[in-house]
Amino acid sequence: MSDTTQFRTTTQHMLKESKVYASHTLMGGLAGFESPIGLDRHDRINALRTGDIGFVHSWDINTSVDGPGTRMTVFMSGCPLRCQFCQNPDTWKMRDGQPVYIEEMIKRIVRYKDVFQNTGGGVTFSGGESMMQPAFVSRVFHEVRKEGVSTCLDTAGFLNRNFTDEMLDDVDLCLLDVKSGDEKTYHTVTGGALQPTIDFGRRLNRLGKKIWVRFVLVPGLTDSEENVENVAKICESFGDAVEHIDVLPFHQLGRPKWHEMGIDYPLETCEGPSKELKARVKDQFESHGFVVY
Ligand code: SF4
């Protein structure tokens, strides 16, 4: 793939206006990464186990998008969920990612360490689902942290059992998506189960980690008072770990990718939330004592 096609202007988790995101994004793609070629299924399974190689969709340098300061965000390939509002269905299959040697990734991240340190930034692993390639991500985190680079994991938490407590030692901040507040709605929204996310948030709290919760507000799907109330209660169960909640208004930036891939897009006619709806949801979370952005 060319640089242009790999360059990202949006992330699937932070549904920012594309113009805003683009203005915060300095560079990206997968240019310059030496890539192993001819990997068969056995090689891939082995790479997943050892973490010597990671399957990466793309990366970029951004500000104020995927954590504090200026950050390098690495979008890993592969995701077990199928969120109706996913902006990047092209990250779903791990085999569609580009294999990257772990040494290459570490070198690339450490190259920016002065920028990270000067801005209070660091590296964020996102996706797809960042916890789908646990050995690669945790080994990278371990190595770059030794160089003074702050680390952030952007995840839905569904696969948190892939990470031992020891692996989580190297995570400074977690951006945790709580996509809905009860199992039924969560399953409708994502195709997956909610409980692993709840378990993970509580586990992060026990481990003394910091969480920024993300909740995507989709009219007619996630916006009922009851659903928001349940999300707030789940966040309360994460204790002091939660620093704030990001309410991310749904919009249609992802629609062209669903069309390009020829898959049915369930939110084809859905519009973003009104100002009133955003204010109501913000108030609801604030009434539980949370800082809300
Ligand atoms: S969790 Fe997976 S399906 Fe859901 S928005 Fe993120 S990448 Fe898309």
Automatic annotation (TrEMBL):
<comment type="similarity">
    <text>Belongs to the organic radical-activating enzymes family.</text>
</comment>
<dbReference type="InterPro" id="IPR007197">
    <property type="entry name" value="rSAM"/>
</dbReference>
<dbReference type="Pfam" id="PF04055">
    <property type="entry name" value="Radical_SAM"/>
</dbReference>
<dbReference type="GO" id="GO:0043365">
    <property type="term" value="F:[formate-C-acetyltransferase]-activating enzyme activity"/>
</dbReference>
<dbReference type="GO" id="GO:0005737">
    <property type="term" value="C:cytoplasm"/>
</dbReference>
<dbReference type="GO" id="GO:0051539">
    <property type="term" value="F:4 iron, 4 sulfur cluster binding"/>
</dbReference>
<dbReference type="InterPro" id="IPR058240">
    <property type="entry name" value="rSAM_sf"/>
</dbReference>
<protein>
    <recommendedName>
        <fullName>Pyruvate formate-lyase-activating enzyme</fullName>
        <ecNumber>1.97.1.4</ecNumber>
    </recommendedName>
</protein>
<keyword id="KW-0411">Iron-sulfur</keyword>
<keyword id="KW-0004">4Fe-4S</keyword>
<dbReference type="GO" id="GO:0046872">
    <property type="term" value="F:metal ion binding"/>
</dbReference>
<dbReference type="InterPro" id="IPR001989">
    <property type="entry name" value="Radical_activat_CS"/>
</dbReference>
<dbReference type="InterPro" id="IPR013785">
    <property type="entry name" value="Aldolase_TIM"/>
</dbReference>
<keyword id="KW-0479">Metal-binding</keyword>
<keyword id="KW-0670">Pyruvate</keyword>
<dbReference type="GO" id="GO:0016829">
    <property type="term" value="F:lyase activity"/>
</dbReference>
<dbReference type="InterPro" id="IPR034457">
    <property type="entry name" value="Organic_radical-activating"/>
</dbReference>
<keyword id="KW-0408">Iron</keyword>
<comment type="function">
    <text>Activation of pyruvate formate-lyase under anaerobic conditions by generation of an organic free radical, using S-adenosylmethionine and reduced flavodoxin as cosubstrates to produce 5'-deoxy-adenosine.</text>
</comment>
<keyword id="KW-0963">Cytoplasm</keyword>
<keyword id="KW-0456">Lyase</keyword>
<feature type="domain" description="Radical SAM core">
    <location>
        <begin position="65"/>
        <end position="287"/>
    </location>
</feature>
<dbReference type="InterPro" id="IPR012838">
    <property type="entry name" value="PFL1_activating"/>
</dbReference>
<keyword id="KW-0949">S-adenosyl-L-methionine</keyword>
<keyword id="KW-0560">Oxidoreductase</keyword>
